[in-house]
Amino acid sequence: MRTAGYGGRLISFEPIPAECRKVERLAEGDPEWNVCCYALGDDTTQREFKINLTQGTKTVFSSFRQVKDGVDCLSESIPVKVYRLDDVLPSLISDIRRPRVFLKMDTQGFDRDVFDGAVNSMQSIVGLQSELSVIHLYDGVPHFTKNIEHYESFGFELMNLFVVSRSGDGRVAEYDCVMAKAGT
Is the pLDDT score of 109 beyond 80? Predict the structure, then answer.
């Protein structure tokens, strides 16, 4: 975001301790970049987070959700704190007179839960990006069209779908879905 020229407030949420330390190092010296070492969801609790390691040490499939059979990875679980965005966002943006939040979610099958924990913050959220699975990699994830429909029910309109990844046979596996509220 900074290399693209954005100079406003950034708030990063990262539940994996080692990954959070990496983000904290990136944010050093940037007073407008807050790093929160916890997860977001639809309730405030502590949950087991599965760190799924693939290709050595990459954590691309790490999630609260169980990876479907057939995805080759090693797992370990760690307890992480989970907060609703509704509970933490007000204090994180309290000094911004007219906040215009862009909510980027990339939570490996948990985006809908993060969104549902932000329903009372919708007056501040003007845009969103959600990673949508077309080929389900995780148990319990709604069909991608159901997620789009859900976001639309809160006034968001589809701006674009970008292919994130494809299966070995060329089918779309995941999209990044960008949506905005009308007139924002």
Answer: no
